[in-house]
Amino acid sequence: MVNGAPNRWTISPQAHGLRWSDAAAPQALSGLGPCDPVIYASDRAGPGAKERLVRGLLAGRFGQNRGSAPQPTLGPVSLELTALGQPRLRLNGQPGPAVSFSQAAGCLWAALTYTGQVGVDAALPSEFEAGYPMARAFRPAELDWARPLSGGATAGAAALLWALKEAAVKALGVGFHLLDPLAVEVFSPRPWQGGWRVLVKAGRILPAWARPEAGGWLAIARYY
Questions:
Q1: pTM
Q2: Residue 98 phi/psi, 5° resolution?
Q3: Is domain 122-223 in CATH 3.90.470.20, yes or no?
Q4: What is d(CA 189, CA 195) in angstroms, rounded to the nearest whole number?
């Protein structure tokens, strides 16, 4: 889920670079495919959060491997949505990198990649308390391997699996409009980069990664 700010906006060029707190500084996730890394960051949810995150992610990408060289000034950046709700960036009027957003626990996350498509999602165990129809969203085999990674809690396991499934369908650009949660299968977990790397089958196989975050789980998936 994303925040209630407008989903279509344009931000003008900035004469000076953005200043980011350490908590919001973009991070790179390499290894989800043989291509450029996924860059991701977070900010407090609220007005302007998407714009700040996109600026920070773009600035982080342009600043890579530049040493002390001046950072180029970014031109106008706009965001639009596809018919199925996938966000699309345009830089200087041209198609830009892939981007995805998710909000949980008062925090907005964004992930960006210059190769392929990306999906990010954050989920909390409180979304999957007693009475949630687990059998309509998760396979028994999925819950069996996810529970030990969540201290044995079924709600925590569900949050992990949902974040991974949601990230994958976002990367595919269809969300759950065209795919049922049970049609998306998460398997082959292994420890990786402070979290867990998995494969997600959603008509095709996507690599994905998840880590514990704010009492729940943060997940990123890649389609390339």
A1: 0.87
A2: -75, 145
A3: yes
A4: 10
